[in-house]
């Protein structure tokens, strides 16, 4: 394993350990090194940007997360195309980042567009499609479109149960949200 891969693995470990400051520091160093090599638009930079977007979001550095997510989507589109799963994941990251900085209409529109792309590319029952659908429901809830969100949560639960089974972690998470909404409505 090369030094860059080792440092990247270390950064991911810090991220999974919820040591977001250290993860961001390591990922920023890697990105700066790639930039000095003139490698910002290659696969390695794509791999570094996405977890850095997540670290920035966890640290409340939402403007930086949105800026980096925008650059990541552009690079993904250029390198991988619009029908690549990594591009779709980057699109989701950008939608979430937009919501965090108050660009809610753009966030909802981008997430809806991304969900449509997931459905076309991988099908309605694919795990990433279902996760995107869940993310859209959460986003709708956060922006106050509660009725629309509640319907989408219900649809997502049914789809998760069918495609993933009741023991899947996403299915369980969606079921908890639906139960909380149903409990609050009564």
Fold and architecture overview:
This protein is mostly helical. The protein folds into two domains: 103 residues, Tetratricopeptide repeat domain (Serine Threonine Protein Phosphatase 5, Tetratricopeptide repeat, Alpha Horseshoe); 64 residues, no CATH class. Helix content is 82%, strand content 0%. Helix 1 packs antiparallel against helix 2 and helix 8 packs antiparallel against helix 9. It is globular.
Would you kindly provide a brief summary of this structure?
The chain is an all-alpha fold. It has 9 helices and no strands.
Most strands sheet = none
Gap between N and C termini = 56 Å
Provide the β-strand percentage band.
Answer: under 5%
Average pLDDT reading? 93
Helix content: over 70%
Bulk shape? globular
Describe this protein with a few key phrases:
single chain, 186 residues, mainly alpha, Serine Threonine Protein Phosphatase 5, Tetratricopeptide repeat, 2 domains, 9 helices, 0% strand
Task: Write the SSE topology.
Elements: H1 3-16, H2 20-36, H3 43-58, H4 62-80, H5 85-100, H6 104-122, H7 127-142, H8 146-163, H9 169-185
């Amino acid at each position: 394993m090369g030094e860059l891969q080792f440092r990247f693995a270390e950064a991911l470990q810090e991220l999974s350990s919820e040591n977001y400051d250290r993860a961001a520091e390591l990922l920023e160093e890697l990105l700066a090194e790639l930039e000095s090599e003139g490698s910002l638009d290659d696969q390695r930079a794509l791999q570094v940007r996405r977890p850095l977007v997540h670290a920035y979001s966890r640290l409340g550095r939402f403007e930086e997360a949105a800026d980096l997510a925008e650059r990541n989507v552009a690079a993904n589109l250029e390198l991988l195309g619009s029908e690549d799963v990594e591009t779709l994941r980057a699109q989701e990251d950008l939608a979430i980042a937009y919501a965090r900085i108050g660009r809610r209409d753009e966030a909802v529109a981008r997430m809806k567009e991304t969900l449509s792309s997931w459905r076309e590319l991988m099908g309605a029952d694919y795990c990433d499609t279902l996760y995107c659908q869940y993310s859209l429901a959460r986003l709708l809830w956060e922006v106050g479109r509660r009725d629309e969100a509640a319907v989408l949560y219900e649809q997502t639960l049914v789809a998760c149960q069918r495609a993933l089974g009741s023991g899947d972690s996403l299915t369980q998470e969606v079921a908890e949200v639906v139960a909380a909404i149903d409990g609050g409505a009564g």
